[in-house]
From TrEMBL, chains A, B, C, D:
Name of this protein: Carbonic anhydrase
Superkingdom: Bacteria
Keywords: Lyase, Metal-binding, Zinc
Biological process terms in GO annotation: carbon utilization
Length: 215, 215, 215, 215
């Protein structure tokens, strides 16, 4: 463990500040979350991007959202092959153990993972085609989405591909038997959103039009 | 897309509140994060658990942390086999593209994933041994940690196993060539933490003692 | 250079301590700030007073704030006359080169500069009226603020004058074309604060009431 | 005041954390600093740059340093012309009112202001030659320093110019009668330092050799 270092002091200081204020003011609730367990109403699948603040945007507090964050908020298809699938494990836990009522896939503008996929599928990022590229192989999940893009400027098409990432995840979610079953039994509903970083916008996938529209 | 539903109204309402207040007061910063891209100082790997609020605990705001959340904050070992590895992709992106300076693995008390692993390894959760159990296969990553547990009550041993989850992730991180290289070149430092939900505690892995100690 | 002396040893000792601890634990980040340049989110204009710790109050670390400190946190009006204007140069650099998103004017209680201005304008500090008094001439910037004070005890009026110093700076900031332009384009927001030294208080200028209110 | 906005919430939150911890633990000292006034041992003149943390480097706390920060830590020569000189006012206040015992000029590597001066004097930044450029006119103070640079790479010469900024400030300080008098009466000592951002280095001006040497 010689590679491990103490936490930077500024984070320790801020933590002590949180403990003395936010935590102190909510101790009863935190303790109850501990003794009774979490009971989140929704699972959110969003991107790791530092500019996406799921809890801020939705005014959520401790205990409300079960949050999985990965590159480009992607859900792979159901593949029970005995290998490790972190995203599938998170979904399984949320749906079968926690029994969340909502599952929200939250995309966002200027997504670096989506851009990588766009460049790769356009032939401009050969390094992402390498077998050893984890980002490239992860973004393979979005290749079929790239094929569906309509004409337009690169910028437009990247935004379209961000939408495709959300649609792909929602489609793949329905390949999981436990998700489909919960949705069909009306125990779970799926939602697709897209957050515009610069303008603070939020669009929602309209199930009728299959387009993203401002909320 | 008939399975998709509009976003629950309470979340739409909260979003509009965020847009009119927090976003409006920080528009300049969000726009700049959009035009210039993110430059997070740290990546945090934490659990999906709804009771873990990474940004609150560390007083962080938009743009500060690149956050990956999965079940039990686990990092698998380096395995460039061309398959999809969401966690490895997130780490690759953070370290090689964003070049974060810190990588913090944040465990927590009462972790459902760790408890599942504990039960499974104790022979009390045969359903998690199924090939088709995503949670079970994901928690296989922590089996070697279970073997290292010392005697004690079940509760103690589960806490120990939460510590092992952080240690395992830190060890596995060093199997990634680009992580090891960055650490050895002093471009990246690794940190291990554990958050106590009920009491708001924070412990830090002391690299010398290899134990978790209150910050 | 015969007038220059070596640094006092106690500071050298403390520096070596910082180097071996805080610096060592954050080397990766500091190096990155060096290679990629700073990208502070905010500029803070505060007083030189040794009792005002901008970074502590706001839990900020290396790279977060571009800080200008002068007597009484004053901003002079825009005056592009070819002479040396240190404060204006700092603002120009922050707004046009660094493109900070926030500009915070931070006043404080018991400000010696403001007290000097108060005494001078009350006729009790003739030495500050001298042409050669740098402090007096600098505090001339706040004379119009003195005229606006309402009745009250000397102590009350000095606090009022500290508030006027913040208001004056904010008003003068808007006389700089590049500040006004950035504010109007929503690329920059201005904020006014006042820190009470004895009680650790923080008030914020409420743009609607134009009064200072506890945060 | 319609241009003013409330303080960003993350800073308010962090402030409350500081108030509840650091402030609460030091209330007695802060109150005493309030009732008895500040009595800083040293004045530090440093750059506004967000990467320079004067108090961290020197392990200083509330009440220890009277700090003036401007672009490139420059002191103009004594010029009692009745105009506004913010830096001169800060020095006058520190030396004649507070009677600090040390005056430290702290330069740093990768200084944007010094780089601007270098480019301007090399003919590569005509915009800084404009009468209306506050940064350009402020950096005029360092033109004589540019003339003294010896041959070398651009990078070497910029570092040399950073040293010249410290030397120029120290020279100019001695043109202030109240500084010279205090130095000659051994009531004040002057010091020159240079901080390397990337490596956390600290060099000190050796009065005998007139060179900067590691402390």
């Amino acid at each position: 463990m010689t590679s491990v270092k103490p936490l930077p002091q500024y984070l320790v200081t801020r933590y002590h500040g949180w403990k003395a204020t936010t935590f102190a003011e909510n101790h009863a609730w935190y303790r109850r979350l501990a003794t009774e367990g979490q009971r989140p109403r929704a699972m959110v699948i969003s991107c790791c991007d530092s500019r996406v603040h799921v809890t801020s945007i939705f005014g959520a507090d401790q205990g409300e959202f079960f949050i999985h964050r990965n590159i480009a908020n992607l859900v792979p298809p159901y593949e029970p092959d005995g290998n490790q699938h972190g995203t599938s494990a998170a979904i399984e836990f949320a749906v079968t153990s926690l029994q969340v009522a909502h599952l929200i896939v939250l995309g966002h503008s200027l997504c670096g993972g989506v851009k990588g996929c766009y460049d790769m599928c356009s032939g401009n990022a050969p390094e992402l085609e390498e077998k050893s590229s984890f980002v490239g192989r992860w973004m393979d999940l979005l290749r079929p989405g790239f094929e569906r893009l309509s004409e337009g400027s690169d910028e437009d098409r990247q935004t379209q591909l961000e939408y495709e990432a959300v649609r792909t995840s929602l489609d793949n979610l329905m390949t999981f038997p436990f998700v489909r079953e919960a949705v069909e039994a009306d125990r779970l509903s799926l939602h697709g959103c897209h957050n515009d970083i610069a303008e603070g916008g939020l669009k929602m996938l309209n199930p009728r039009t299959e387009d993203f529209e401002p909320v």
